[in-house]
Structures are given as structure tokens and as C-alpha cells.
Amino acid sequence: MNLAAEPNLDGKYAPANSAPSVDAALIDYSRKLAEYTHARRQYDAESTAYWMSIAEKRRLRNSKRRTNQEIVLDDYVLTQPPSIAARRSR
After folding, report:
1. What residues does each domain of the chain span?
2. Which of 78, 83, 85 has its CA nearest to residue 54?
């Protein structure tokens, strides 16, 4: 059955041949997806570097404990992990 009009999300009817709006929506979605992917890759790079530094400091502290060396403040990472919310505000 081919209807001349189809309901929109708000319940109103629009012409069945509203393909340009679908194309525009796909273009907008693709643009937003590309922006998200770029931001996520940047965040992942920062986050990975942070957590690698945490792991390295932990290995050093464990090594110091095994050899009964003093553990000092510099043996810890004193910053907070990167935040996605902080990236949005930049």
C-alpha cells in the first residue's frame, strides 16, 4: 500500500517524498559522528598516556618496597585522570 503522506515523529503528516530531509539528516549525522570520533581519539590518547604513567609509577613503588627503599611523594601521579567533560569545555 502506497500512502501519499506519512506521519512524522510529532504525529503530523508530511509528503511521502521527503527524501531531501533524510539526506540532510544523514549528512548531519555523519558530521556529528566524525566530530565525536575525533574527540574520542584525542581523549583516548590522553587517557592512555595517563594510565601508563600510573602503571609505571606503581611498578617503581613496588620495586622500592621489595628493596626496602623509601617511597616519596614523587613516586605517585598527583593529577586526576583526563575527563571527557573537561574536553567538552575546551
Report:
1. 17-88
2. 78
Q: How far apart are CA 82 and CA 7, in angstroms?
A: 44
pLDDT in tens, 3-60: 555 666 666 665 555 567 888 999 999 999 999 999 999 999 999 999 999 999 999 9
Dump the DSSP string for 36-87: HHHHHHHHHHHHHHHHHHHHHHHHHHHHHHHTTPPP-GGGS--SPPP-HHHH
Read off the DSSP letter of residue 18: -
**For the whole prediction, is pTM greater than 0.70?**
no
> Rounded distance, CA 80 to CA 78, Å?
7
